[in-house]
Design a protein that fits this description.
The complex is a heterodimer of chains A (about 110) and B (about 110). Chain A is an all-beta fold and about 110 residues long. In chain A, strands 2, 4, 5, 6, 9, 10 and 11 form a seven-stranded mixed beta sheet that branches. A four-stranded antiparallel beta sheet of chain A has the order 1-3-8-7, with no helix packed on it. Chain A starts with a strand and ends with a strand. In chain B, strands 2, 4, 5, 9, 10 and 11 form a six-stranded mixed beta sheet that branches. In chain B, strands 1-3-8-7-6 form a five-stranded antiparallel beta sheet, with no helix packed on it. In chain B, a hairpin with a 4-residue loop joins strand 7 and strand 8. The chains are: A mainly beta (about 110), B mainly beta (about 110). At the A-B interface, strand 5 and strand 10 of A face strand 4, strand 5 and strand 10 of B.
């Protein structure tokens, strides 16, 4: 079984809709991250959490929110989706300096 | 904040040849430099890393070199194989700090 899982793997939604992307991990790591990947660009940090109830903004948090419901779960929400949020989204955990990424969610906003 | 530049953006080599990808960073306090490989449809996976107290690290066909003075580090893949085809990302961070990623290099190994 994968250590970091993301659901859904693909999602198509319409402008203005609220959607949630979910991430679960079995690695037992306290630190979790949400990144966004656009074609030709690296991974940009949206939000991160060092523990349950701890939430920190990354470099591109506008238009997104997160919830850390338990050590193993970290969800990303788009309150009102817009087309320029079309991207590949990755969840990751971290222990020491090493990050472990999930398989990604491909989100398309029409 | 930290800025990481990665070159080239695309690289095509013949099977068996070597491939080199270079990154430069701006923050002299950065001390951890990992390289990730992203295969199609998958998340990035750590393949090798180096810390600022080491100049070179090797793991079978892959190696990473670090020049702290010039603030650049490189990934070297020797005897490339088709399964090495992927997107490669470099990153830089400080201890317990956030990672800053390069824009990625798409490596194609032609059989």
């Amino acid at each position: 079984d994968a250590d970091v899982t993301q659901t859904p793997r693909n999602r198509i939604t319409k402008t203005g809709k609220r959607i949630m992307l979910e991430c679960s991990q079995t690695k037992g790591h306290d630190r979790m991250y949400w990144y966004r990947q656009d074609p030709g660009l690296g991974l940009r940090l949206i939000y991160y959490s060092f523990d349950v109830k701890d939430i920190n903004k990354g470099e591109i948090s506008d238009g997104y929110s997160v919830s850390r419901q338990a050590q193993a779960k970290f969800s990303l929400s788009l309150e009102s989706a817009i087309p320029n949020q079309t991207a590949l989204y990755f969840c990751a955990t971290r222990k020491a300096d090493t990050q472990y990424f999930g398989p990604g969610t491909r989100l398309t906003v029409l | 904040g930290e800025n990481v530049e990665q070159h080239p953006s695309t690289l095509s080599v013949q099977e068996g040849d070597s491939a080199v990808i270079k990154c430069t960073y701006s923050d002299s306090a950065s001390n951890y430099f990992p390289w990730y490989k992203q295969e199609l449809g998958k998340g990035p996976q750590l393949i090798i890393d180096i810390r600022s107290n080491v100049g070179e690290k090797k793991d079978q066909r892959i190696a990473v070199t670090l020049n702290k003075t010039a603030k650049h580090f490189s990934l070297h893949i020797t005897e490339t194989q088709p399964e090495d085809s992927a997107v490669y990302f470099c990153a830089a961070s400080k201890f317990e700090g956030k990672s800053t990623f390069g824009d990625g290099t798409t490596l194609t190994v032609k059989p």
